[in-house]
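Subject: Interface between my chains keeps coming out wrong

I've been trying for a while to get a sensible model of this assembly. When I model each chain on its own everything looks fine, but I need the whole thing in one frame so I can look at the contacts. Pasting all components below, labels as-is. Any help appreciated, I'm running out of ideas.
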Amino acid sequence: MSEARLIPEPPKRNRNLRVVLVEVRNPLNIGAVARAMSNFGFADLRLVRPYDTAYREAVSAVGAGAVLQNSTVFDSVAEAVADCRLVVGATGLGHRQPQHSLYRLELAARQVRRALEVGPVALLFGSEKFGLSNDHVSHCHWLLRIPTRRGHESMNLAQAVAVCLYELIRSPLAARHCLQAVDKATGEELERLTLLLQDVLQHAGYSDYGAAPTAAEKTHRLVRRLSLDSRDASVLTGMLRQIFWRLRHPGETN
Amino acid sequence: MSEARLIPEPPKRNRNLRVVLVEVRNPLNIGAVARAMSNFGFADLRLVRPYDTAYREAVSAVGAGAVLQNSTVFDSVAEAVADCRLVVGATGLGHRQPQHSLYRLELAARQVRRALEVGPVALLFGSEKFGLSNDHVSHCHWLLRIPTRRGHESMNLAQAVAVCLYELIRSPLAARHCLQAVDKATGEELERLTLLLQDVLQHAGYSDYGAAPTAAEKTHRLVRRLSLDSRDASVLTGMLRQIFWRLRHPGETN
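Reply #2:
Try treating it as a single job with all components included. I did that and got this:
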């Protein structure tokens, strides 16, 4: 199967995702989030009350891509999610408000993907230092959590966004196919190599494999265990041919 | 199911993973990779020929964690992977050498997980600017590729590491359970709310729902569609009770 089929263009539903960063301070983080969005085929970046200088720095940075250039700034979470039919907050362990359901990313992404099919969805991320406040969380339908290790839950903002977006675009089907497979050697190629190896070993006086037919069997098994592709089988055969020639003509120049 | 069961301690196989960064230049990237490793429960960070100052800056940075402090520096890829039984290179599209199999991350991670059960595995990442060179790639058994969008394949180094490690620790089973579920309202709670709503509407003279029994059916359906949890049903019932009281006692103080 060709890679083109396995890494398709971003589906139309990607257009329904809004990544909303609330009160983010670091221009590098804003840029890194935009880059991750572009990597995974998402375009709608919204910033709620970013630190002014941080935002201006990020947008004017060399290499600021289309996602950043087209990002929009809002004064409140309410305005940033006004067009969204589902609002999901990403959280560490800071906001375990019992009135909100909390899903691990694997399950959350499944629900977000379904919601994206039918309308706009916002993914909310809080500031680097404080995450989402109770006020921000009150705009969310439910919360998601990346399954980080107990004791070190808090992720870098842009890494958290990257992991969430990856989970949204990952494909269980893709786990079934190799992007680029190498042709394995054929039985004929392996047999040619094996017989040549036996000749070389015999001429070289290698005796560890003992007398035929055990030696023959052992070289057969050895060569098959190498799991050679076609190209490497051919290269090895060429090497052995040269070695075999040299063994039979020790004094001659090539 | 409790969150403790859904986000377990890192399995022992995590100890078998070596994250190998080859010729990385930016101390922020080294620190960010170490943080992602700590988030996902991996500890063995190896650097091949890092820019000296970058490495020293990263290790001496405030907040440099245990992963960074315990990282090791090697002079060559060969030395860095000497104890590994599988070496996998992470690549964009730069190194499509036909002699290497290339797997999408979803499939690659499945194979890496299996290999981690039985021995050390190295995941190789190249420099921010050039990725892995042909020479570095020659130490790999095969390559993996994060399924980024055509036209913007190249990810930030630490984000790429974070996404790969997340795929290694993600659990398909986790997609079946909610970490923190809110108790839905019982039929009794919903019925109490519905009857009270009907009383209020009648007293308020609301007529859009027409005459009973249609109106009764409509309020029943409306309340069920709200998909209320127990707590919110109770709050709404309280609100309606107060409104109902006020409707019947318009002049009185509370």
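Reply #3:
Confirming on my end. Chain B touches chain A through 59 residues (CB under 8 Å).
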